[in-house]
Amino acid sequence: MLESPLGWVLLFLVGTVTGTLSGLLGIGGGLLMVPILTLFGLPLVQATATSLIGVLLSALSGSVQNLRTRSLNWRVSGLLALFGIFTAQVGAWWGDRLPDAWLALAFAALLLLTIYLMNLRRQLQQREALTLNRPAVAPASPAPAPTPPLQLPSIAGIGLLAGVLSGLFGVGGGVVMVPLQTLFLRETIKSAVRTSLGAIVPIAISGLAQHAWNGNVLWIPGLCLGLGGIFGAQAGTRLLPKLSDGTVNQLFRLFLVALAVYMAIRGVQGLQR
Questions:
Q1: How far is CA 170 from each of CA 25, 72, 219, 226, rounded to the nearest angstrom?
Q2: Three-class SS state of 271
Q3: In angstroms, rounded to a whole number, what is the distance separating the alpha carbons of residues 100 and 252?
Q4: pTM of the model
Q5: Are 267 and 101 in contact (CB under 8 A)?
Q6: Burial zone of 144 (CB within 10 Å; 0-12 exposed, 13-18 middle, 19+ buried)
Q7: Rounded CA gap, 142 and 148, in Å?
Q8: Whether the Cβ atoms of residue 257 and residue 89 lie closer than 8 Å to each other
Q9: Torsion over CA of 188, 194, 199 and 203, rounded to 10 degrees?
Q10: Residue 123, number of CB atoms within 10 A of its CB
Q11: CA nearest to 255, candidates 167, 193, 198
């Protein structure tokens, strides 16, 4: 079916939807593309490899739009990607040695942890807002020093962790980077979404090159996904500035919950076989 015109149209629509989520939520899109491709009958390794074309093109499209509007911190994106590319090989080594069922359950736990980190970040923001709005009862103290533009230790830690998890679970890394960036780099959700989306581009290139070398990539279906992803990512990045931070937070949480439920069910079913 994937080699027919109808299959190409369906893949284009899938790419459009996942590309919109990519631009809106700062994810690579593979979290949706891979399971959908398996529904077409592809082996998991081919689904993962083929989806990387769509992940790459949609993330690249969204990042170009963010660069045009000067809303992408390309230095932080580059550093995150630099560290992530190296440790992705470690994650891939681990992934080859763990059963699929345990990987699925671990992924579900990771998504729930991500929601916790986002909730923690929101609580810290609310606490800071209350402190700033509290009436002064003593002479005002000097303003705190501005946050350094580049916090290399935190950036390195986030990039290294995102790379390991990317190689282990086959994700672009945005699902991990966004909440950690808001927590440790003190970025807003919108800024973290844009930064992580830019970092996904070189990470996806690295993974695609390795899969292509192994002969796992189906190029025509992948290009159909990618073309849809280009349109979707443009829509997502244009929609992002029009949404409130609270709306983006809620969308991101709902997306993570849905993925956690799916992965938990898949893991339990794998253990019962």
A1: 17, 24, 18, 17
A2: helix
A3: 25
A4: 0.71
A5: yes
A6: exposed
A7: 17
A8: no
A9: 120
A10: 10
A11: 193
Domain ranges of the chain: 5-132+147-272
Q: What residue spans of 134-244 are helical by DSSP H?
A: 152-169, 174-184, 189-213, 219-239
- Between the two ends of the chain, the Cα-to-Cα distance in Å is 29
**Residue type for 270, please?**
G
Query: Per the structure block, which two tokens stand in for 233?
Result: 């990512």
Pairwise CA distance, residues 118 & 112, whole Å = 10
| Separation between Cα atoms, residue 49 and residue 191, nearest integer Å | 29
The number of helix segments (H) and strand segments (E) in the chain equals 10, 0
pLDDT values of the chain reduced to their tens digit, one per residue, 273 residues: 677 778 888 888 888 877 777 666 656 566 777 777 777 777 767 777 787 787 787 778 778 878 888 888 888 888 998 998 988 777 776 766 777 777 777 777 877 887 776 676 667 556 656 765 665 444 444 443 333 456 888 899 998 887 777 767 666 667 778 778 887 887 877 788 888 888 888 877 877 777 787 777 888 888 988 888 777 777 776 776 676 767 767 777 787 788 778 878 877 887 887
